[in-house]
Design brief:
Distance between the termini: 58 Å
Radius of gyration: 21 Å
Number of domains: 2
Strand order of the largest sheet: 6-2-1-7-8-10-9
Bound molecules: S-adenosylmethionine
Strand content: 15-25%
CATH class of the largest domain: Alpha Beta
CATH architecture of the largest domain: 3-Layer(aba) Sandwich
Shape: globular
Largest sheet: 7 strands, mixed
CATH superfamily of the largest domain: Vaccinia Virus protein VP39
Length: about 280
């Protein structure tokens, strides 16, 4: 066994997991520790530490700087996502909520604000954008903007680039593919596609940690998607995050959580209108 593969002392292991939870909310189960060590191995080399134990100790003592801590958190996050993931949410938004949200307003076209609050590489935010653009095409009168945020800087950069592997969009129907997906311009990147400028102009991304005590975000958001991130948090952090997000919804605004997360959300001041959809009262 090389030094780098040496098992962490149980004290460093526990302190590292506590630091990850404090900084990101993410609870690392025992089963994930080996995977995390493997992902961080490159950082041990790049920062010139003699082994994982030394790296983690230096990291937690702050000797490697805040940027290194951010990079470590970035490496341990799970970023699995896809376009139209948990599609029933987008159907509900398009067929039930949007028509309600755009009626009234004394004949003027409302401007809807949507937020993908743990957006990973942006597929969820761009799915929302496609749903909005298609609803406008169907004749609904409204304007819209989508914000995507994530703790992972590298994911936010990827989302901003809006470039995806061709097979990530292969399940989109022909209409969506034709309207919103561009073929790669560079022939060397023919396995890649890009979201069209028409959508990119209306979707913004920024790095943001849901564990921060306050969020630099508008307080009149119409729809927040907070999906497949609460599962990594404990009950207390889940409740804090939901409460903070709730304070950024306008009254009557909606919060969507992932299909496996609905039962873990308890939110005073929110009405559960579907198992995973809440309306701010
Ligand atoms: C599994 S992905 C879910 C992506 C998307 N919402 C979906 O359902 O497809 C979880 C995302 O949550 C992000 N995340 C984890 N902890 C976070 C935190 N404290 N603040 C913001 N984002 C966080 C991760 O970086 C990751 O991109």
């Amino acid at each position: 066994m090389t030094k780098q593969q040496a098992v962490l002392s149980s004290e460093t292991n526990a302190r590292f997991r506590a630091a990850v939870q404090r900084l990101s909310g993410i609870i690392l189960p025992d089963s994930k520790v080996a995977m995390v060590e493997q992902r961080l191995r490159r950082r041990v080399l790049d920062t010139g530490q003699k082994d994982m134990e030394a790296y983690l100790q230096a990291l937690m003592a702050g000797r490697l700087g805040a940027a290194e801590m951010e990079m470590a958190i970035d490496l341990i996050t799970t970023n699995t996502t896809s376009f139209f993931r948990e599609n029933a949410h987008f159907d509900y938004l398009r067929d039930i909520l949007l028509p309600q949200m755009v009626t009234g307003h004394n004949g003027s076209a409302p401007r809807l604000k949507l937020w993908s609050a743990a957006c990973s590489e942006g597929a969820e935010a761009f799915t929302l954008a496609m749903v909005m653009a298609q609803a406008q095409r169907s004749g609904l009168r409204f304007d819209w903007a989508v914000l995507g945020t994530d703790i992972s800087r590298s994911m936010v950069e990827k989302a901003r680039a809006a470039i995806y592997a061709a097979d990530q969009v292969s399940a989109l129907n022909t209409d969506l593919l034709t309207r919103y997906i561009m073929a790669a311009v560079n022939p060397a990147e023919k396995e890649q596609v890009r979201i069209v400028p028409e959508l990119r102009q209306k979707v913004r991304f920024r790095q943001m940690n849901l564990m921060d005590p306050s969020y630099p975000i508008d307080r009149d958001i119409d729809v927040i998607f907070l999906r497949n991130v609460l599962i990594y948090f404990n009950a207390e952090d889940r409740a804090h995050v939901v409460r903070r997000l709730q304070s950024h919804l306008r009254p009557g605004g909606y919060l969507f959580v992932g299909h496996s997360e609905g039962m873990s959300v308890k939110a005073d001041g929110m009405e559960r209108i579907r198992p995973t959809i809440f309306r701010k009262m």
